[in-house]
Task: inverse folding
């Protein structure tokens, strides 16, 4: 009789402790969210940042939009939002502008028709961002890990030359959790990436930097990776399309 009574009392005590812990945690976060206000992002001033990749690709091929102007617009936007969301770990702005100039020269030369460009270089002149765990030759590849801090990629990951061959231009690397092992975008190398819709919250992970930057109109196309939701979770948290 006594052992069963003690067992029942322990079970009730555990339930009470769990209840108190959950409510104390809920209260703590409630106070935190009241005390710490989110930082709003500056509004998008350039409408080109709100256009789709397909429409911009067609406009560049037809000479209606300059790749240099498009890349410059995204550079300005990244510089606006980066102090708030902390999504970018390294950029290649100068190199990207040179790549954009080359794309514009190709279009202006007339050596390839718009139809041929659409078939052979469908992403000509479009900037894209890349998750830090994906190698871009010459850029960082430490995946938010102190152990690998400062490591540089010696060659491109397979997806990157495919994007380049299609005419796209790498613009920036984005933040991830350490070794992409968590569902957020925080590490001890680059800090915490914020959700642009509410900077008190995270963007999900592990492609959290991509999700945050895309949702901030700071990137047109993003390269991420997904095994257990690393693209799907940031897409859901940040309100963007992930595939």
Result:
């Amino acid at each position: 009789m006594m052992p069963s009574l003690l067992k029942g009392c322990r079970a009730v005590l555990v339930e009470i402790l769990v209840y108190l812990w959950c409510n104390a945690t809920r209260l703590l976060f409630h106070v935190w969210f009241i005390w710490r206000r989110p930082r709003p992002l500056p509004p998008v001033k350039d409408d080109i940042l709100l256009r789709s990749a397909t429409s911009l690709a067609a406009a560049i091929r037809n000479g209606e939009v300059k790749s240099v102007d498009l890349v410059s617009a995204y550079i300005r936007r990244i510089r606006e939002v980066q102090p708030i969301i902390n999504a970018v770990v390294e950029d290649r702005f100068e190199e990207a502008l040179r790549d954009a100039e080359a794309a514009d020269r190709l279009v202006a030369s007339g050596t390839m028709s718009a139809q041929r460009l659409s078939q052979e270089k469908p992403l000509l002149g479009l900037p894209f961002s890349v998750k830090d765990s994906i190698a871009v030759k010459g850029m960082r590849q430490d995946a938010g890990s102190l152990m690998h801090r400062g490591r540089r990629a010696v060659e491109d990951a397979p997806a990157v030359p495919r994007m380049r061959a299609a005419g796209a231009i790498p613009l920036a690397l984005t933040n991830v959790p350490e070794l992409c092992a968590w569902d957020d975008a925080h590490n001890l190398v680059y800090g915490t990436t914020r959700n642009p819709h509410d900077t008190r919250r995270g963007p999900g992970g592990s492609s959290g930097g991509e999700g945050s930057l895309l949702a901030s109109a700071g990137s047109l196309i993003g390269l991420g990776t997904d095994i257990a939701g690393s693209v799907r979770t940031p897409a859901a948290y940040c309100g963007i399309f992930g595939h």
